[in-house]
Amino acid sequence: MALHFDTDVLIVGGGPAGAATALSLLTYSDLNVLIIENSAFDTIRVGEQVNPSLFDLLTYLKVGKEDFEEGSFVRGYNSQAAWGNSGIHSRDSIFSTQEESYQLDREKFDLMLLSEASKRGSDIIPRAKCIDFKQTEDNHWCISVKHQTEGDFSVIAKYLVDATGRLSNVGRKLGMTIRQHDQLMAVGAFLHFDNTTVLKQDILLETVAEGWWYCATLPNQVMVATLFTDADIVKEKRLQKAENWNQLLANTVYAKNKVNQASAFGSPWVKAAFSKITDATTRKNFIAVGDAAASFDPVSSMGIGFAISSACHAANTLVVHSKGDLSSIAHYQRNIEDIFSHYLTIKAQFYRKEQRWSDAAFWQRRNVSV
């Protein structure tokens, strides 16, 4: 491996937001791109519900639905929720009234976007961690990188893009102001059904005192079941332990019936799911995309859609900036702030629909004014 790389744009993070940023830059500009990813692309990817507007964004990136591997998009025929009362009813996303939805196979989706970015000219280096970030007098970036097997190298880039997800690893390392609004965590498991079980292609949300459950059918006789609750509740109830997680699942009214013939793939996994926004304007030639820019409660179903749309806008922002419009990054940040402010208002209204556990800590924290 080379000891030094020069690039116009360094993207740290190879998820959908990072890959889409690269695709947009490579499709609509002459800027060259390098993607650095800490993992070997083998981390847990939780399936996600998306609506057909995602395909419009992919069309902008010149990627067609037919370009994805079979099974990447599973049509969700029914989305139901027991939220606000004990009955079960049809549910749309809180930000969309489109009835049609798809369950995304994140592994296939993510790897296809990366593969397409590589075909269009992006260099991609997995298993590498950015250790240090410095800026020169002309605001270019000098980044020290450590590869898991190939040793150390450096990157010089005009622009730096944080696509490291909800944890905003680059933004935090650079001292960006990050406003976190809650401590939401996801504790879930992938459940397998034998071939004699016919699984409905549907999605269920069910509220409980500790938070809310999400169950969704995935390809290959698999379902994901996830409890969304707060970090202190995870710690107090030791929900990373299978027996404790299973007991809360058994206490549900509807979710337990969807999984009663399943077997789990090991112990539950725990992932961050909190809402937050990053102020990325304090450093020049820097921009954040996807969850690194702003992350949303999964009940909003905004994750993938925002990852791709923010990536497209960020790429255009960098192209315009490179041509001399130095106000473009600040304008991009204001747009992110507007989206996040609107989201907080709608999210609060949605959570206030549930009043059955008004004394429970999880719901007390959310049944307040924005």
UniProtKB/TrEMBL annotation:
GO terms for molecular function: FAD binding; oxidoreductase activity. Residues 6-325 form the FAD-binding domain. Its EC number is 1.-.-.-. Pfam families: FAD_binding_3. Keywords: Oxidoreductase. SUPFAM superfamilies: FAD/NAD(P)-binding domain (SSF51905). The keyword Oxidoreductase applies. NCBIfam families: maturase_LodB. This is Putative FAD-dependent oxidoreductase LodB. The gene is lodB.
